[in-house]
Design a protein that fits this description.
The complex is a heterodimer of chains A (325) and B (566).
Chain A lengths: L5 H22 L10 H33 L17 H29 L18 H9 L10 E3 L12 E8 L2 E6 L4 E3 L2 E4 L3 E8 L4 E5 L4 E5 L5 E6 L4 E7 L11 E7 L1 H14 L1 H9 L7 H5 L3 H4 L3 H11 L1
Parallel strand pairs in A: 1-9, 2-6, 5-11
Antiparallel strand pairs in A: 2-3, 3-4, 6-9, 7-8, 7-10, 10-11
Helix pairs in contact in A: 1-2, 2-3, 5-6
Chain B lengths: L18 H8 L19 H29 L10 H37 L7 H9 L1 H10 L16 H4 L2 H31 L12 H32 L13 H35 L6 H15 L14 H29 L8 H23 L2 H7 L3 H31 L5 H28 L13 H31 L53 H4 L1
Helix pairs in contact in B: 2-3, 2-4, 2-16, 3-5, 3-7, 3-8, 3-9, 3-14, 4-7, 5-7, 7-8, 8-9, 8-10, 9-10, 9-11, 9-12, 9-14, 10-11, 11-12, 12-14, 12-15, 14-15, 15-16
The chains are: A alpha/beta (325), B mainly alpha (566).
Chain lengths: 325, 566
């Protein structure tokens, strides 16, 4: 009986590997629910890389296993293998293929990064934001508590569609050990959770009071460090109403793991009613906050009006702040 | 004699400091072996220093491993219920620090490098033996500083020690940590200098450059990289030390400092440090695989040059650790591309080793099992590394368990497996005795299963939303975390058959003879363990280091008795 030619086996193996990798790569459930405009971009990119990775993994691991079985030493055989010391065309082949793959991935990642808005913050050399790039002025801005008006130069900014347009909603986000504080400059609301309307172009101006924190919403696939002294930003459009975790991703002390809160993506109506309610509820405090220079207050005094939103009691807050000081 | 030489030429094969011949002359001229006490002294023999590095490093591996088990026990439940969160951070910080600076780097470079480089190039010792001993003896005080820092709470800011956190948390412990790292960094610089000079100047004249074993190429590339990058880390850490203790404000944002500059200084060293931890291991792979597959290495030049390529490109990828930090978009993209390019020379090595297996007569010894284990897991770590190297995806997974899973595949599945492969391969040379192969197989099976159980689920944890360096986490992640914790117990148990094998075989194992594996590199041409100055008469290189299949290895008696060689 004649043997099946090796080339045929290789072809079949190639088709099987391709099919498996595409199927797994495109149908994996490794990522959490998508909830921002950037999420499908990141996931699409991940799925492409995952598909390639599975194919390479199957080919290399399959080859290793095949060789281990085929070229195992048989009992009693103490001779050496065949003296092959190299094969230039083969070596060129396996240098060139990965080179092409990584260069294509490189181009693709530039494209995805651009569509995510990664180039925008640094893309306005003439904007006022550029001034903040000088470390001294950035710090001055933080000290005078005006970082809300200083546009950050680092982070994920406007996508090509929203370039040169102001965001629909700007929220100042401050990281402290171990909480996020969200301040809405347009309405004066301060909250321990982020409330945003679905479909709105939201810009978060990130800052940190004590140590480095990192603002991460897994469902948005976005993360940006909040750095003391250096303003950063995240700009995105939430696409799906719901409640998603906000996680601190940069080690910030003993209770880093508990520095979690939520982002609530509302329908526009829900958002408006939340906004109205909180404006009324915080009216009194608002006057105080405007009248009082926050820099003169201790951390716990400053935070006391917001403990309800942060989901903790004033006493808990006091103990946390005491421990930190 | 040596000191009277005035010409520019470097004396071949004679330690220039000249203290070794005197020592031997002080005894009878036929002192064959060191006594066990000599291993606890300031000894200048490269083989003693190599074993000192390996044994010291292994002790710290056990300490760092116990810390990891404690972390995994804490993470078996979402609440912080076993360790105080600050102690958790101290264990987490020092687990990383110990594994990097006191286990992988000293064992791979200090241990195998010192033991093997002179033997492989046909030298009687390293170029500067006293400097070599000084480099080793900087390590024990560094280890004591790390352990002593726990009296003051232990450093808690991660092995990266980012300010401002490192400036406001456990300052005395952090200072001790900095001093420890500066000590091992200095040790690394001294050692690297020694390797470069030894390899360049002291190989036997009959060895051509394309006959230098690939392990020596790897150590040469590693040493150059360490010489270029380590001073930058030292600079960054000294500035941090000043901020902590002397009132400066290089990294204090409220006093005009900049926290991101520290990150650049840190990663300019610490990304190359990844290659310091893996390039010598790649060298071990290139030695172990041909011997046990009975095949010449596939593409000697490609493997040697790819080490150099990794070093060069590896110096320009550090910002991929800072894609979510204070870095502008163009910088994130530049370092995405450079990071992706590193995959190419790394892939070349992987493919070359796989091709070396083709047409071989593979002997599944303990050394070979770990080498194959490394090959299969490094593929995983390499592929996940490529995905993370791209800024758009890294913005999601940076500082998550995906990263933890990735670098443990590279550093545990890679470096630690490589160190094990090296120990199984060269143990007969170092001790003159064979290891037990059954215990080796049990050790391999437990380690391989444990590694995958512990680190594979971490990828999914990270993608789904679990950040790294946390003592408490969202309860939705409990199932995967418990698999990881179970896997870590398997890894903990896996050390037991290894330790038994080491101790028992060192005392009672069957005699190995000069060349139990019928290998062709020069270290196998001397006795096991080698005499104090390595050879009575220096060997002459008559064939390449990997010329299997040409009849060279059949001339070697597989079980030469020590009497026959004496």
């Amino acid at each position: 009986m004649q043997q099946v030619p090796v080339s045929l086996w290789t072809l079949v193996a190639g088709i099987v590997v391709t099919a498996i990798s595409i199927w797994i790569g495109q149908n994996n459930t490794l990522m959490p629910v998508q909830a921002s405009l950037q999420a499908p971009l990141v996931d699409g990119f991940f799925n492409v890389m995952f598909t390639i990775a599975i194919a390479l993994f199957l080919v290399v691991e399959g080859t290793i296993v095949l060789f281990l079985i085929q070229f195992r030493r048989r009992p009693g055989d103490d001779t050496d293998g065949v003296p092959i010391e190299g094969n230039l065309p083969l070596e060129v082949f396996w240098t060139a293929i990965p080179t092409v793959i990584v260069l294509l991935l490189g181009i693709y990642s530039v494209d995805v990064f651009n569509r995510m808005g990664g180039f925008d913050p640094a893309g306005h050399p003439h904007s006022a934001a550029h001034v903040a790039h000088i470390p001294g002025s950035a710090i001055a801005a933080t000290l005078s508590n005006t970082e809300a008006t200083t546009a950050p130069t680092i982070g994920i900014g406007a996508s090509p569609q929203t370039l040169n347009k102001p965001a629909d909603l700007v929220v100042d986000v401050k990281g402290i050990q171990y909480a996020w504080i969200f301040n809405y400059p347009d309405s004066g609301i301060t909250s321990g959770e982020l409330h945003i309307p679905v479909g709105a172009d939201v810009q978060l101006n990130l800052s940190a009071q004590d140590v480095i924190h990192s603002f991460w919403v897994p469902n948005f696939r976005l993360k940006q460090d909040a750095l003391p002294g250096i303003p950063t930003e995240l700009r995105f459009v939430a696409t799906k109403p719901g409640t998603y975790p906000v996680v601190c991703a940069e080690l910030c002390g003993g209770y880093h793991g508990s520095m979690r809160t939520q982002v609530i993506v509302h329908t526009p109506e829900e958002y408006n009613s939340w906004r109205t309610e909180n404006q009324i509820a915080q009216q009194q405090n608002l006057n105080q906050v405007v009248a009082v220079n926050p820099a003169d207050l201790s951390t716990s005094e400053f935070l006391a009006p917001h403990t309800h939103d942060m989901g903790i009691s004033a006493a808990t807050l006091e103990s946390v702040v005491m421990r930190r000081d | 004699m040596v000191k009277n030489m005035t010409q520019v030429e470097f004396p071949q094969n004679t330690p220039p400091e000249g203290n070794k011949p005197e020592m031997v002359a002080g005894h009878t001229s036929h002192l064959k072996a060191w006594k066990w006490q000599d291993y606890f002294t300031f000894n200048v023999d490269h083989k003693v220093i190599g074993i000192q590095y390996l044994v010291t490093a292994f002790v710290f591996y056990l300490i760092g491993g116990l810390m990891a088990i404690a972390l995994r026990v804490e993470l078996a439940t979402p609440e912080s219920d076993v360790l105080d969160p600050n102690l958790y951070n101290a264990f987490m910080t020092n687990h990383g620090t110990i594994m990097i600076f006191l286990w992988i780097v000293p064992s791979a470079i200090g241990g195998f490098g010192n033991y093997l480089v002179p033997l492989m190039v046909g030298a009687r010792d390293m170029a500067f033996p006293k400097l070599n001993a000084i480099a080793f003896w900087l390590n024990p005080p560094a280890g004591l500083l790390i352990l002593g820092s726990f009296i003051f709470g232990g450093s808690q800011s991660g092995w990266t020690a980012y300010p401002p956190l490192s400036l406001v948390t456990a300052p005395i412990a952090q200072t001790m940590w900095i001093l420890a790292i500066v000590l091992v960094g200095t040790s690394s610089i001294l050692g690297s200098l020694n390797f470069v000079i030894t390899i360049l100047m002291m190989k036997v004249p009959s060895m051509k450059w394309d006959q230098v074993p690939l392990f020596c190429w790897a150590i040469l590339a590693t040493s150059l990289l360490a010489l270029l990058s380590t001073p930058v880390l030292a600079a960054g850490l000294v500035l941090l030390l000043f901020d902590l203790n002397f009132g400066t404000s290089f990294f204090k944002p409220d006093a005009g400092g900049n926290v991101v500059i520290y990150q650049h200084l840190f990663w300019f060293y610490s990304h190359p440090a990844v290659y310091l931890m893996i390039l010598p291991i790649f060298g071990i792979m290139s030695e172990v695989i041909p011997v046990h597959a009975r095949k010449p290495i596939f593409g000697y030049k490609a493997i040697a040059y790819s080490s150099v390529a990794i070093c060069v490109v590896g110096l320009f990828v550090w910002v991929h650790h800072m894609f979510t930090s204070g870095t502008p978009g163009w910088m994130r993209m530049f370092f995405t591309i450079s990071t992706l390019i590193v995959a190419v020379p790394t892939g070349v090595k992987i493919f070359a080793w796989v091709a070396t297996l083709w047409g071989g007569k593979i002997r599944f010894t303990g050394a070979m099992l770990f080498a194959i284990g490394l090959l299969s897991m490094f593929v995983m770590g390499g592929l996940s590394g490529v995905t993370m190297g791209t800024a758009p995806f890294d913005v999601h997974v940076h500082d998550t368990y995906y990263v933890v899973g990735h670098f443990h595949y590279v550093l545990f599945g890679g470096s630690v497996f490589g160190i094990y492969a090296g120990i199984y391969h060269w143990f007969p040379k170092m001790t003159g005795r064979m290891l037990n192969e059954s215990l080796a197989r049990i050790h391999f099976a437990l380690t391989f299963i444990g590694t995958n159980l512990t680190f594979l689920p971490m990828h999914e944890l990270g993608l789904k939303g679990m950040p790294r360096r946390v003592a408490m986490y969202d309860p939705q992640f409990i199932d995967l975390n418990q698999i990881c914790t179970f896997g870590s117990f398997v890894l903990g148990i896996s050390v037991i058959p290894f330790a038994i094998n080491m101790i028992y075989s060192w005392l009672k194992g069957p005699l190995a003879g000069d060349n139990p594996w019928q290998a062709l590199t020069l270290e196998w041409t001397t006795s096991s363990p080698p005499a104090i100055e390595n050879w009575e008469v220096l060997p002459v290189v008559t064939h390449g280091p990997y010329d299997y299949g040409h009849g060279h290895s059949t001339e070697i008696q597989p079980s030469a008795t020590p009497e026959a060689t004496a």
